[in-house]
Amino acid sequence: MKYLGITLKRPKVGFFDFTGCEGCQLQIANKEENLKDLFGLVEVVNFREISSERRDDYEIAFIDGCITTDSEVARLKKIREQARILVAMGACACLGGVNNLRSRFHLPDVVKEVYDGHPIDTGPVRKVAEIVPVDIELPGCPISKPEFEWLVRHLILGIKPQFPRYPVCVECKQQLNSCVLDMGMMCLGPVTRAGCNAVCPRNRLGCWGCRGPSEEANLESLMEILKEKGFTEAHIAERMNFFNAFSGILDNDR
Amino acid sequence: MLFKTITKENFKKMVEALLEENEVIGPKSRDRDTEGNKIYRFLKINSFEELEMDYTRSYSSPKNYFLPFKEDLATYHFNDKGWEQEIQYTTHPRVIIGMRACDINALLKLDQVMLKSVYPNPHYFARRRNTLIIGLDHEPLEDCFCRSMNTDTVFHGFDLFLTDIGDRYFVAINSDTAYIILNKFDAGEVTEEDRERFKTVKKQIESKFKTQVDITILPELMDLEFESEVWKKWGDKCLSCGSCAMVCPTCYCYGIEEDTDLSFSKATKRKFLYSCNLLDFAAVAGGHNFRPDAHIRLKYRYYHQFRGFVEAFNQSLCVGCNRCGKACLAGISPKAVIDDLIRTEKLQK
Questions:
Q1: Residue span of the structural domain in which A115 resides
Q2: How far is B45 from B62, CA to CA, in rounded Å?
């Protein structure tokens, strides 16, 4: 493969799932119309959703899911040792994600409720960056396919990807959507990182913050606006904690 | 300027004829706000019935039909020898119905930048020339301050401009194309009665302006109040979300990005509208950000609108539609900010 006369390397890549629904990997696997082009660019050596091949000579590792058990910690550390570039992929890997809702409760109580006392290996919910250094965070729940492909192109060309630093509102206005906050719905779009093309507000659903906070997000101002609109602190806190995107800001409400 | 009248029935026939060969854009409602008011936008219409000529305010301006939020400037096809550049200027003919005087004045301001500068923008030019504009008068809304900005009336920059005088429209004609089209639909000569009705409607419109913004000394005031606390006050509320610039009929700042396709056989140079309120608007290579603070970015947006543009073109960039004020969740509006600046200045005296 050549680009502007330069031969491009076809990097070996591996995809690894931890605690999560594995939906981010499914996003990649189910986009069939250009799967051939995509996998022409990279050599997949480890990706259980599409191949039975299991090799450990990957240069780039994509991590999906959050980290909850000791065995996962050990496995992640081993992947980090092998991978030249480690990508945390999706809200679980980048933020802790929905799984983190569990952290509100006392762990033994949760295990008892869900597994009825059956012994299970589980621990605190942690994002990937809490265990090993992460090179790139690809946000979203699930990840966006065009954004994943965009990232792969950057990785192959060796260019640092610049994710949008601004909030979802920019893309929402560009789609000529009605502002769901004007329509009485809760929305975290003004403080959430863009790049999703405002898919939720476009479908009349307020943003839940799955892509994490936009840079220098003005949470104080949004809190005031939401309260003025009649949303209770508990309601706001529930929304903000859903993906663990704004952790540390609303801890008093937990 | 030529004036004629067209009955609403014939106007419907005209729109239906236009729909056959053109993409027609017009005010259309989707959703309602918490108070039950319709939320309007300029969208593609497929039949006359979809057109809502009694619309009040469109949430976003029709700017994007001339300056799209994203547009491909050029495509590059790679081959063994190098690459070939492909640029597309052709646009499908389009009709926009229902643009307000302020929005047409906004286009005239954009023309100054896009068509009359040293390097005219051919993409904008193509869209501007291929768009038939049918303007529409309206009674000012509570927060319209177009009168202060001298954009409440318009004499050029459109093809037809309609004023509702009951069972018919009083029509100002400003292009040959529009004249020919209009005459196909039994346009009538203006009678004494039409003239009287038109004058009554115009007086009615004039009497309804409520919001005023004093801009007479604004450029100078802005220089004097460069360090004012007013900027900090409003900047602290600012979400840096760029909504103001996106809905604005005149904000034209942009960025450029280049990307390849998945097979690395083709690359695209893409332009995207940006906002000076966004965090990295003034970030440069190496990581330095010239405007890292929200209040400084907010200030510079106002400076461009009310001072910088005046210096360059002897007029403000703002047309007084207050769409930014309406879209801003934090309640930042030109009226509020400018009144605050003027108040500070008076207090100091």
A1: 2-157
A2: 14
Residues A68 and A136 in one domain: yes
Nearest CB partner across the interface for A176, out of B32, B43, B330: B43
Among A133, A157, A181, give the residue marking a domain's end.
A157
Q: What pLDDT, on a 0 to 100 scale, did the predictor assign at position B349?
A: 60
What residues contact B330, with CB distance under 8 A and at least 6 apart?
A221, A225, B237, B238, B239
Q: How far apart are the first and last CA of chain A?
A: 53
A137 and A175, same domain (yes or no) = no
* Cβ–Cβ contact A227 with B under 8 A: no
Q: In this predicted structure, what is the pLDDT of residue A4?
A: 81
Average pLDDT over residues B210-214: 92
Inform me whether the pLDDT recorded for B239 exceeds 80: yes
pLDDT single digits (tens) B41-64:
999 999 999 999 999 999 999 999
Q: Is the pLDDT of residue B278 over 70?
A: yes
Runs of H (alpha helix) within chain A: 23-29, 35-41, 70-82, 90-95, 107-115, 145-157, 169-174, 199-202, 219-228, 233-241
Chain B residues whose CB is inside 8 A of the A149 CB are 262
Residues of chain B with Cβ-Cβ distance to A203 below 8 Å are none
Q: What is the pLDDT of residues B168-194, one digit of tens each?
A: 999 999 999 999 999 999 999 999 999
Taking one residue from A and the other from B, the number of pairs with CB-CB distance under 8 angstroms is 117
Q: Do B263 and A2 touch (CB under 8 A)?
A: no
Do A114 and A220 reside in the same domain of the chain? no
Give yes or no for a contact between A187 and A210, defined as CB atoms under 8 angstroms apart. Answer: no
Domain residues of chain B, as ranges? 2-65+90-207, 218-251+277-348
Judge if A78 and A111 occupy the same domain: yes
Asked if A122 and A200 sit in the same domain, the reply is: no
- Which residues in chain A come in under a pLDDT of 50? 251-254
Q: Does the beta carbon of B243 lie under 8 angstroms from any beta carbon of chain A?
A: yes
pLDDT the model gives residue A253? 44
Average pLDDT over residues B192-200: 97
CB contact under 8 A, B238 and A218: yes
pTM of the full structure: 0.94
Q: How many CA atoms lie within 13 A of A231 on its CB side?
A: 22
For residues A124 and A186, state if they share a domain.
no
Give B151's pLDDT tier (boundaries 50, 70, 90): very high
Residue A89 belongs to some domain of the structure: yes
Measured in angstroms, the CA of A225 and the nearest CA of chain B are apart by 7
Q: Kindly state whether residues A152 and A177 are assigned to the same domain.
A: no
How many structural domains comprise chain A? 2
A61 phi and psi, to 5 degrees?
Answer: -115, 130
Q: What is the largest CA-CA distance in chain A?
A: 62
Q: Which of A157, A189, A222 delimits the end of a domain?
A: A157
Q: Give the pLDDT score at A249.
A: 59
| One domain, residues A152 and A217 | no
Is A153 in the B-facing interface, judged by CB distances under 8 Å?
Answer: yes
What six digits make up the tokens of B121?
A: 């923008």
